[in-house]
Design goal:
This protein has helices at residues 2-22, 24-27, 34-43, 49-66, 70-88, 103-118, 135-144, 155-167, 206-216, 239-252, 260-269, 291-295, 298-303, 305-316, 324-345, and strands at 97-98, 125-129, 147-152, 174-178, 191-197, 217-230, 273-279, 286-287, 348-357. With 361 residues, the chain is of the alpha/beta class. Strand 5, helix 9 (206-216) and strand 6 (217-230) form a beta-alpha-beta unit.
């Protein structure tokens, strides 16, 4: 009887999802919500998740063996780039959730904050490395008037970023370049400012990454990094700490998270001088960076055993594609729930802005 009840509920949910996906209000859902979560399920109903997860795990093992996680990251975003955009809009990173403001407003506020930390000006040439679709770079360009180049490895992100640049009316001000930030396709001293948001977590070689950022930076220029990091409270010998941090890395096919001390050391070795280091969540009116998952109830949906059972039933009945349950557990439940739980425990941080400057001489 319980199985029958669940089946009826699931069919009703699927019909509701199909109906919502056809509505204009949900056809371009771009913020975390229950609606966006359901539309994601419908949008990916014909995807080959079995092949994706096989290549995901093979690439992770290869990255762990060789230290080269690039193929795994590219494979991960082959599926996840559109999925993240559908469910969360262009906002692929966490920001402080200011009390009284929506998630979108908080991200708009962050774009101004980034422009301020960069000290972005109208005559600047700015590089955003590991830019994804280049959303933050476009916003910095709009706010400051600077010219911004986005560097990314994924074909899908180059094509999508160029489309967004044209749509935003920034064709003469922004551009996309394909390349690896460990070996940037730019000459020495090409940019006045360089920044990366939630991208160095994919690097297994911070020394090279910072060296390249410093190389393409003009003397007197500024490098800004905003990342997910392990906090001082993190204890690798603590099984629960290790489980959460490992889940985050494995689900996203990236190397283990770095501590902030590793960033400071790599920047110093690259000849950069520390200028600022600020946790944007420190003011009293700012809620934790991970609270977006709580405020939008996404965390609770992903933790729901009922939803997991419905997904399993849907896959058995072929309402959902084969392998979706595995994908749901591997890439949706994780890392989202791990971010929340690790953030609550204080073992990772996701709102620290770090700034360095390249000496003029």
């Amino acid at each position: 009887m319980e199985v029958l009840s669940m089946l009826v509920c699931f069919v009703l949910v699927c019909l509701a999802v199909r109906w919502m996906a056809s509505l204009p209000i949900f056809s371009s859902v771009d913020d975390q919500s229950i609606a966006s979560f359901l539309v994601v399920m419908w949008h990916y109903r014909k995807t080959d998740f079995v092949s994706f997860l096989r290549s995901h795990r093979e690439a992770l093992l290869e990255g762990q063996r060789t230290g080269d996680y690039v193929p795994g990251v590219c494979n991960y975003y082959r599926i996840m780039a559109d999925l993240i955009t559908i469910s969360s809009g262009p906002f692929w990173h966490f920001v402080p959730m200011t009390k009284g403001l929506s998630r979108k407003h908080c991200h708009d506020q962050f774009h101004h904050t980034m422009s301020e930390f960069l000290d972005a000006r109208g005559d600047d040439e700015i590089l955003e490395f590991g830019c994804g679709f280049g959303e933050i770079g476009r916003q910095v360009a709009k706010i400051s008037g600077a010219k911004v180049t986005g560097l990314t490895m994924a074909d899908e992100e180059i094509a999508g970023g160029n489309e967004r640049i044209v749509k935003a009316g920034l064709a003469g001000q922004c551009g996309m370049v394909q390349g690896n930030y460990h070996k940037m396709p730019f000459g020495d001293a090409s940019f006045d400012k360089v920044f990366g948001v939630y991208t160095l977590k994919y690097s297994a070689d911070l020394t090279t990454a910072f060296s390249e950022a410093a190389r393409v930076l003009k003397p007197g220029g500024r490098l800004v990094s905003y990342e997910i990091l392990t906090a001082d409270k993190y204890d690798a010998s603590n099984p629960e700490h290790e489980r959460l941090v490992t889940n985050i890395s494995h689900s996203t096919c990236m190397p283990p998270l770095w501590p902030s001390s590793a960033f400071r050391k790599a920047a110093e070795q690259a000849g950069l001088q520390a200028a600022k280091e600020v946790d944007l969540c420190e003011p009293e009116n700012e809620e934790p960076w991970y609270s977006c998952f709580e405020k939008t109830r996404v965390y609770y949906v992903l933790k729901s055993s009922i939803v997991k059972k419905l997904v399993a039933v849907g896959e058995v009945l072929r309402i959902l594609p084969v392998g979706f349950g595995d994908f749901y557990e591997t890439c949706l439940i994780h890392p989202a729930t791990d971010f929340v739980e690790a953030g609550r425990s204080g073992i990772i941080t996701g709102s620290v802005m770090m700034v360095w400057e390249k000496p003029k001489a």
